[in-house]
């Protein structure tokens, strides 16, 4: 048997023994589930002898916190020995100076998690650490495999110890299996990747160095940065904002189907997939990644402003002011204002100190319109015809409540513009977009959605406009959540299991 590396887990958060399951963490009603696609995960890796790699990883994860707020972890390597600390909670809750001081080494990897495969619990926190004949392996994963069930069955037959319910552990175990059969780290990783189907951007720590890899479609992002000095030190991160915070310079993306190995000799690149075909998730650009992160040689803030200008060209309307839903809708709202001539204003104030809370409001609080995160500016809005811009609608529940709050603030007309097309299909590649029967645009027309939300008009950005605004080859993006055209075939068993999960737990 391949034993799971024995670690002492951090003390559970005192407010809860375990975070609730991602689907049932509100109450048993779709009315109170999130109205946005839920985040991916954030990964980080660094090889920098003579630097405090644990602290640098902490700050890298801090910058990537938006990609997952359920758990966080860091693994460091010192003289072949792994040191690991992970727990439920935000990066700032899981780590402090004392904890980081007990994570020595010259290389580190980190992870901040939102659960897609595997429920939200301590056992599933990452990095996943496995023992092999070559020493410890630590793995951080962003994405989601679509062949989890057969891969789990294959590995179970070899009598490995399956401790978690994540597909990330399966990837680590597959690498360990190949290494224990005689492969080196590079060959072992490559063999394991060929057994994986779906989306995976990985950062892997070993006694020999740090590896980074992407699936053949590059669905989830991964970038390489450099730290100044002699010799040059290398950093891996889900987004460039994870590089900026520690003063690293963006070098390039890890390419689809590429594996990079960072050691004391520098960075080496290997093409492990013979036929890569780039299909970056378009939602990374629309919503998930931070607006200050760079993709395709520009900030995503700039792309999102372009989306706003495009939807203004497609469906403008006469109004007094335009504003965005903070924070993700603001760049598109500014672009809309620039293109339409409608003045931009702030109509909503976001309470940025409200994170995820697991204290449920009372029923009377719900009925009175609890506004924990967004509050209308009544004196700005009263008597106005407004255009409100948002990046997406999933169920419509939050949007309906927001429109109601605007009406109560004195708005006389509400026109909603969405800077992406209607979400009609679920994602199976690391984003939680719910099952198809719960996606409002999959079951209702735009007119019906407008009636349900209570708006005077509603318009979505066209699929063509969204892709053309990238100024890149439109065939290099995954937009399956809008079209149902999945770049990696989704097994029927996976589709059914997601639907059954919805029926069982909601």
TrEMBL record:
It holds the Pfam family Pribosyltran. CDD domains: GPATase_N (cd00715), PRTases_typeI (cd06223). Mg(2+) binds at residues 328, 390-391. Residues 41-265 form the Glutamine amidotransferase type-2 domain. Keywords: 4Fe-4S, Glutamine amidotransferase, Glycosyltransferase, Iron, Iron-sulfur, Magnesium, Metal-binding, Purine biosynthesis, Transferase. Its cofactor is [4Fe-4S] cluster; Mg(2+). The keyword Disulfide bond does not apply. [4Fe-4S] cluster binds at residues 281, 427, 478, 481. Binds 1 [4Fe-4S] cluster per subunit. Pathway: Purine metabolism; IMP biosynthesis via de novo pathway; N(1)-(5-phospho-D-ribosyl)glycinamide from 5-phospho-alpha-D-ribose 1-diphosphate: step 1/2. The active site is at 41 (nucleophile). It is an enzyme of class 2 (transferase). GO terms for molecular function: amidophosphoribosyltransferase activity. InterPro entries: GATase_2_dom, Ntn_hydrolases_N, PRTase-like, PRTase_dom, PurF, PurF_N. It catalyses: 5-phospho-beta-D-ribosylamine + L-glutamate + diphosphate = 5-phospho-alpha-D-ribose 1-diphosphate + L-glutamine + H2O. Its EC number is 2.4.2.14. NCBIfam families: purF (TIGR01134). In the C-terminal section; belongs to the purine/pyrimidine phosphoribosyltransferase family. Catalyzes the formation of phosphoribosylamine from phosphoribosylpyrophosphate (PRPP) and glutamine. This is Amidophosphoribosyltransferase. It comes from Umezakia ovalisporum FSS-43. The gene is purF.
């Amino acid at each position: 048997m391949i034993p799971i590396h024995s670690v002492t887990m951090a003390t559970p958060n005192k407010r809860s023994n375990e975070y609730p399951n991602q689907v049932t963490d509100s109450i048993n009603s779709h009315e109170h589930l999130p109205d946005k696609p839920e985040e991916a995960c954030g990964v980080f890796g660094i090889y920098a002898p003579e630097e405090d790699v644990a602290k640098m990883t902490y700050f890298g994860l801090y910058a990537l916190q938006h990609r997952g707020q359920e758990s966080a972890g860091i693994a460091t390597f010192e003289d072949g020995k792994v040191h690991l600390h992970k727990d439920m909670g935000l990066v700032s809750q899981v780590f402090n100076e004392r904890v980081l001081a007990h994570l020595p080494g010259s290389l580190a990897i980190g992870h901040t998690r939102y659960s897609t495969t595997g429920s939200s619990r301590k056992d599933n926190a990452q990095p996943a650490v496995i023992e092999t004949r070559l020493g410890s392996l630590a793995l951080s994963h962003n994405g989601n495999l679509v062949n989890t069930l057969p891969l789990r069955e294959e590995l179970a037959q070899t009598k490995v110890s399956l401790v978690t319910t994540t597909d990330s552990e399966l990837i680590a175990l597959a690498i360990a299996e190949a290494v224990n059969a005689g492969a080196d780290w590079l060959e072992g990783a490559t063999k394991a990747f060929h057994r994986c189907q779906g989306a995976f951007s990985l950062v892997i720590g070993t006694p020999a160095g740090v590896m980074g890899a992407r699936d053949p479609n590059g669905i989830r992002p991964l970038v390489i940065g450099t730290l100044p000095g002699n010799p040059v030190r290398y950093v891996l991160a889900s987004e460039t904002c994870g590089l900026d915070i520690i003063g690293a310079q963006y070098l390039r993306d890890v390419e689809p189907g590429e594996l990079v190995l960072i050691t004391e000799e520098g960075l080496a690149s290997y093409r492990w997939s013979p036929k890569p075909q780039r299909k970056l998730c378009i939602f990374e650009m629309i919503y998930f990644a931070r607006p200050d992160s760079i993709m395709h040689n520009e900030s995503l803030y700039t792309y999102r402003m372009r989306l706003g200008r495009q939807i203004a060209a497609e469906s403008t309307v006469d109004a007094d002011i335009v504003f965005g839903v903070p924070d993700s809708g603001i760049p598109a709202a500014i672009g809309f204002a620039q293109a339409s001539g409608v003045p931009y204003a702030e109509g909503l104030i976001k309470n940025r100190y409200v994170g995820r809370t697991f204290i449920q409001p009372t029923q009377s609080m719900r009925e009175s319109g609890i506004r924990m995160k967004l509050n209308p500016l009544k004196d700005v809005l009263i008597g106005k015809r407004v255009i409100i811009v948002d990046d997406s609608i999933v169920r419509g529940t939050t949007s309906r409540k927001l429109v109601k709050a605007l009406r109560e603030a004195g708005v006389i007309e509400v026109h909603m513009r969405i800077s992406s097309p209607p979400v009609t299909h679920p994602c199976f590649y690391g984003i939680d977009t719910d099952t198809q029967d719960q996606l409002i645009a999959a079951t209702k027309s735009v007119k019906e959605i407008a009636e349900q939300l209570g708006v005077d008009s509603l318009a979505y950005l066209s699929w063509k406009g969204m892709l053309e605004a990238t100024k890149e080859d439109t065939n290099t993006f995954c937009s399956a959540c809008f079209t149902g055209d999945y770049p990696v075939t989704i097994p029927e068993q996976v589709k059914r299991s997601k639907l059954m999960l919805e029926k069982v737990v909601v």
